[in-house]
Every structure is written in structure tokens, then in C-alpha cells.
Write a structure and sequence with these properties.
Strands 1, 2, 3, 4, 5 and 6 form a 6-stranded parallel sheet that branches. Helix 1 packs parallel to helix 7. The chain has 8 helices and 6 strands, in the order βαβαααβαβαββαα. It has 228 residues and is of the alpha/beta class. It is globular and about 60 Å long. It has a single domain, classed as Rossmann fold, CATH 3.40.50.360.
Length: 228
Amino acid sequence: GKKVLIVYAHQEPKSFNGSLLKIAVEELTKQGCSVTVSDLYAMQFEPRATRNDIVGRLHNSEAFNYGVETWEAYKRGALSKDLVEEQKKVQEADLLIFQFPLFWFNMPAILKGWMDRVLVQGFAYDLSKAYDGGLLQGKLSLFSFTTGGSQEMYSNEGIGGDIRYVLWPMQHGIMHFCGVKVLEPHICYAPENVSDEKRKEMLTAWTQRLKTLWKEEPIDCSPEWYFK
């Protein structure tokens, strides 16, 4: 069976995001996958990248440089316990699903903090090993999220511009940079503003997609996909 890590960033289990998470866990488990969930709010995950992420001595105690210090700490096995645990989950996963509501054209701070702290140099990338050469090659990722605005708002003609512009820093700047292949995002537009029937349709569509997920081809992770 495949191994899936779902990194979930919503405060309320009864939310629409909570329903999407529940469906993913149930459907993927039914397929024989081993599913792990990092429920960031429930874990009270620390989003801030600080000195506390390094155990013991610093590489340079005169001037703190988070990128350098975590890289050095990773090499000598001196990252904090919570980071080591999350890195182990990432390492074991064939597929990473990120489930969250879009905040200000971006992922919630707690999820961005997970990216900042977990995907350190040496573990997820090296400056000479990035994008197609990133250190997390052989993995798939999928961004599944809800929006406040309608699909029309996130179109080329809409006030928000094409939703793909929003996905560029997440999918390309983080996942592709680390060598992870990216599946088409799963977007539920404005679930709070539609009928119960429409919400049910959205949940059914997610269930159906998960049934054939492993047959999907990753997107062409190039600037053209985002800005054509």
C-alpha cells in the first residue's frame, strides 16, 4: 500500500475542510493506503522559525542565521523533536496532501510555518539540488483547499486574477523546488456561499477524484502552466 501524509490546517473538525479531510482518510484507507494526518492546530504546531529548532550548540553563536543553523543541525542530527517527527512522516510518504482554507491568497500561517520549519536545507533541498534535482524526488503532492471567493473571481477576467498565480509560490516555489511532483490542485470555491446540495456535490467530486488519484499524471511544473 502507498503511504500518504495529509497536512491539515483548520481549527474546526466540523468545517468543510474537516469534511474533505475525513473523506480523504476514509477513501485512501479503503484503497489500502497507510494514511497519517498532521493536524497542525490540534498539535498546536509552532509556526515560528526560531533558535528553539536547534538542539544544543549553534554553528555560529555570534550572529543567528536560521537557514545555516538548521542545515548544520540537520547534518549532525540536532533539530528539535517536532521537526524530526514531521520530517520522518514526509520521508516515508509517497503522497503529500495539504488541506486548508485559502487566507489572503495564501496558506494559513500555521501551514506556512510547517513549510518553513520542516523543509530545511539538507533534508528537502540543497542549493545545487533543487527543482527536478530536489532531495524529495519520487513523491507526489496535492494542494486541496477552499476559497472565500467564487470561481469567477479567480479567473483571468476576475478581480482576483487566475487562481494559478496564487499556486505558483506554493506548488512551484516549495514543492517543485524540493523535487516533489505536483498533481492538479483540488479547489472548492466558496463552499460557505453555496447551497447544501452544491456542497454535497463538491464532497462527492472529491471522493470520486480520490478513487483514481494514483492514475493521474502530474502537471507540467513550468512557468507556462501558471502564467500562460
